[in-house]
Amino acid sequence: MGVNRRWVCAFGDGGERCPHTRGGEPNKSKPIATPKAVVPTPTADTDGLQAAYNVFKEEAQQLDPDYTPNTVNVDGWQATSQAWRLLFPAVTIVLCFLHAFIKIRSRCKRLSEVYDQIKQQVWDSYHAPDKTTFKQRLAQFKEWVQANGEQMNISALKALTKLFQREEQYALAFDHPTAYRTSNMLDRQMEAMARWLASGRYFHGHLQAAEQRSRAWALLHNFRPYCPRAKVNEQFQSPAHKLNRFVYRENWLENLLVSSS
Length: 261
Hints:
The chain is built from eleven helices and five strands. Helix 1 (about 45-65) packs across helix 2 (about 80-85), helix 4 (about 115-125) packs antiparallel against helix 5 and helix 5 packs antiparallel against helix 6. It is elongated, with a radius of gyration of 20 Å. It is mainly alpha-helical.
């Protein structure tokens, strides 16, 4: 069967934080579960994503029945935000600023005369120290775009207009100092997943087989040792070690077997 290639991925546990959600500081008084909630969904609508994200919710709440994230960083896909609100009504949705910049870059990079100025003002706004300054810089940026609009094409103006229209959604991050403002931490994980999927020609068979295969990849991804030359390897053996802050065995494969038993 064909499986939609939109992925629901939660590389993390229920008590600490993961690249896609942030629920507070880690609870170090109890062991942390193996990060493995990776679920393919046959549809990318609200119902499909809610069912897939619910797997993460259930596994997180096996560790902490009261677990709920304070914030979740998402791209602009509306169904994703709706699914998270249905699962966690109190969650604050924070739009990924990096996705906004990538869209602007793709629409504006051929505007050689003004692109550097656009890029600078986008990131100057992002690095504002507080919400008020952020809004002021976006307002100034908007005035500059209006004054220089004749040098831009329609698609560039649409991308910039969307940024300005979503000002309040981006500004929400300043109310939550520990919230993730971009999803690049998750994107790094999914780059490896994308290569793995492409090398296996994506999915074969039924959805259950796809999910089991995906979870097997997630286990290996989290327990295989870091590259010896990686700086993180000086402190941690693997992503699972970094998340849990301890290992059961020095041998990574033994540690995987014990942790997942």
